[in-house]
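> run fold Aliphatic sulfonate ABC transporter substrate-binding protein
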Amino acid sequence: MAFTLNRRHLIGAGAALGAASVLPGLSLARATDTVRVGWGKGSITQISLQRGEFEKNLKDKGIKVEWVGPFPNHAPSLQAVVGGSADFGFWGSTTPALAAIIAGSPLVFTQFLVYGPRSTAIIVKKDSGIDNVQDLAGKRIAVNRSGLGEFLAVAALEQNNVPRDSVEFVYLNPPDAAPAFGQGKVDAWSMWSPGVDIARDKFDAKDIFFEGTDLDYLIDYSSLVSLRSFAEENGELVREVIDAFKIEGDWMSENPEESEKMIQKEAGYNDAVRDHLAALKRRNVFYEADDPAFLSDFQRAADWLVERKILPQPISVADHVVRVPGV
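> ok
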């Protein structure tokens, strides 16, 4: 299936977004010359840290980079931003960011990233007796709360007419979910790359639902998040940071084998997993935070999550993005 922005329009009807709801453009100000950036293994932030070009590009602009992490998933990254120990998260999932905003955190989206092909999957052990999504009824599945794992599990159950209350969701972050799956404490795990690929290889597991082929829409995206106050006081710095990340994302798109070798060095998985991931030849596509077409899709995604009670209440996503100058 071709990966395009248009495929997300299959999510369903959602509220139309007006440009008036988007925050005014940031001023070209810079209140600091140091930026603290969260990072996580297997992400664009890890590549940015290891290559060193991200820091060099920002150094040329008079900006010093400090790395904070690694974070296992987006929720603790967001906590670091809210708590004041990081200025940006690590390009994590939009869903926990929306959940944090609904809970009152003063966060804003500064940029979005969509990569394809997607490789999040629900896996089970080959000897589990579970051969498809329907077989999950009466079973336990590990997911990360309000994150990509939970969303994919909900979508898979719905698509296969399996009542959600017939499956027990066990809410675990990836470092805890991996051993729980390996030890048989849960029957299935909904997880993204490279964690799902490592587990598939390590625990002799198989896919029963694969996002890239079994789902025709996206509900969760990668996002760069900061505090609203930080963005408003540092418009110039925010622009320089997202431009530097775009250079990294473009490099990854053009160098999938080298990218995976760098990620493998940090994550420690074997060559078979590395080669599998490199063969996906992922492409990174960036969207400005106030892109009207993207925000329309994002709003539909948020509405989908609210309707399925993954998010606790409706949210207007356009009220929580910033228009960054320079493009």
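The longest strand covers residues 107-116.
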